[in-house]
## 1
Amino acid sequence: MDKNYIDMTNENCRRLNAASERFGSPLEEKELGSQKIYEGRIIDLRVDDVELPDGARSKREYVVHPGGAAVLPVDDEGFAYLVEQFRYPYREATLEIPAGKIEAGEDPLVTAARELEEETGLRAKLLTPLGVIYPTPGYTNEKLYICFAKGLEYVGEHPDQNEFLHVVRMPLHMAYEKIVRNEIKDGKTCYAIMRYVLLERGEDPVEAQ
């Protein structure tokens, strides 16, 4: 068999990661020039000239985003708190974990705590970082920092102006089932809930290391 693939065993993964950190990725595209063609309130749009790994040149259009933080709140009874809001680009209402834009120089956990209180009225005694995800790497540099919230206390919500949403409290297992049935489609929400379920089952591969 022609082996034009990378064998991703644990040992090979470690070697590849070490090589990438030392020498850079062999797939890297080098920026030759960059132009901002739109500046918005939250996002910018840029078009870059790049050099490809084989020396050819191309263009890359992408959205510049300051990044965001998202938080999965779970209470002592095992209920998760999600927000239902209308997402205009999809023309439909979605169920999501609370999330928002990181302000300049702000710690993502501070962002997560603020958005949790603004959107659900909850304040958490403990925020646990879960990691970073790239929601749409094909056309934006946005990074989303995900965390869990425990030890919840209701203090009163105060959503942003022009932000309309419903807070939905449901058993975590029901939220998980909605993901499996493709009723919850939001990527950050799927990641956070499925990761939490793995942790609760003691099956999380990161925790097991």
Note: The helical segments are 10-23, 108-120, 172-180, 187-201, 205-208.
## 2
Amino acid sequence: MEKLEDAADKLFNPEFLEIARTQFAKNSHPLFNELKPEVLGVGEGRAVMRLPYDERFVGDPVSGSLHGGVIATLMDSVAGLCVMATIKLPVPIATLDLRMDYLRPTKRGEDIIAEVECYHFTKTVAFVRGYARQGDPLEPVAHCSASFMLSTKGPKAPEPGPFSSLVTQEDPK
């Protein structure tokens, strides 16, 4: 098995981006899968996802604004992906704290772009901040700040998939 530090360099290539697009969503919780976000970009210290507008997740039927929980789920998910890309190790993580500031209602029919950065990490905790936007980048709809515990016990590891071949010398199944 190759060293994890060497394998980490592979995380930032186009193959990893494709794996993030497919496997991250596939192995996430049911609500995340129902929201159907798209990974637009991922790299050391940054991650970006797009959430397609969906009437099923409207919180205010009059304005068509999405429910705040949908935005929080998106921000938590993109932040977790960002942490994984930043620490360069495929270890379990857990959200310790997620603070959401809702700055304005979302607009009916417009997708949300969530972009976060991991601005600091220690041996045990990573710190992330970011924005959710629709249209004008100078007028975000929400801001988040979060912290994640690193190397948690986590759930039982899934069966090896495409990501495991990047970390080990095994052929993907």
Note: Residues 4-164 form a domain with the Thiol Ester Dehydrase; Chain A fold (CATH 3.10.129.10).
